[in-house]
Amino acid sequence: MSPIDRNRDAWVVAAAVALNQYGSWTGRVHIHKHLFITQVLGLAAPPFNFVLYDYGPYSFELDQTVTNLELFGRLTRYYPQPGYGPRFAPSIEGLKCLSSLGENELRTVGRVAGQLRDRRSQELELIATCLWFERKQGVSDVEEVVRKVAQAKPKYEDKIIRQRLDETRELVKSLAPSSASA
Asked: What is the DSSP string of 75-100?
């Protein structure tokens, strides 16, 4: 296994540990959005490339990493409720991957998960998409962000997008480095 793969494994396992700790469903979408938010806010540097996709920012490498971790028994998929998608949790073997991340990276992953808590995947989809347009495309005007998100996500009403944009901006404030010690 290459050092890049080990590092990718560690980021996914760390996200799964932290999300589970804070009551998240910890499905694929949750892991994707958590690591995207961590990266796009410049809080840490998970080694994944993201594109805007069907459910918001998405990384093909991250998805492949989840698949590989499952395949090699480092990540466990389980279905706690009929009719709902899977949840993920690291195995004991998977927890060994964490040694390739530093304390600051692990603390950051935990802080982000602590802010995301038990948000549903649809909420995370919109929050991450708002961040995509604000941070990746430099759109700052509220109405322009709402318009762009609505174009990318026509299933959502403007009112819901505005609400998620407000939550996004609060999330950004709460995760700002100056609030880390608060």
From this structure: EEEE-SSTTS--EEEE-HHHHGGGGG
Residue 11's domain comprises: 3-179
Please give the helix or strand (H or E) that residue 146 lies within, else none. Answer: helix 142-152
Continuous H helices in 22-141: 28-40, 60-71, 92-95, 103-116, 121-131
Q: What is the pLDDT of residues 160-169, one digit of tens each?
A: 999 999 999 9
Quickly state the pLDDT bin for 177 (edges 50, 70, 90).
confident
Would you give the DSSP letter of residue 137?
A: S
CB-based contact 48:39 (threshold 8 Å): yes
Mean pLDDT across the chain, nearest whole number?
94
Confidence of residue 182 (pLDDT cuts 50, 70, 90): very low
CB 87 within 8 A of CB 27: yes
**CA distances, 167 to each of 3, 8, 101, 126, 127 (Å):** 36, 28, 29, 10, 7
* Structural domains counted in the chain: 1
β-strands 87-90, 75-78: how paired? antiparallel
In whole angstroms, what is the distance from residue 182 CA to residue 176 CA?
A: 10
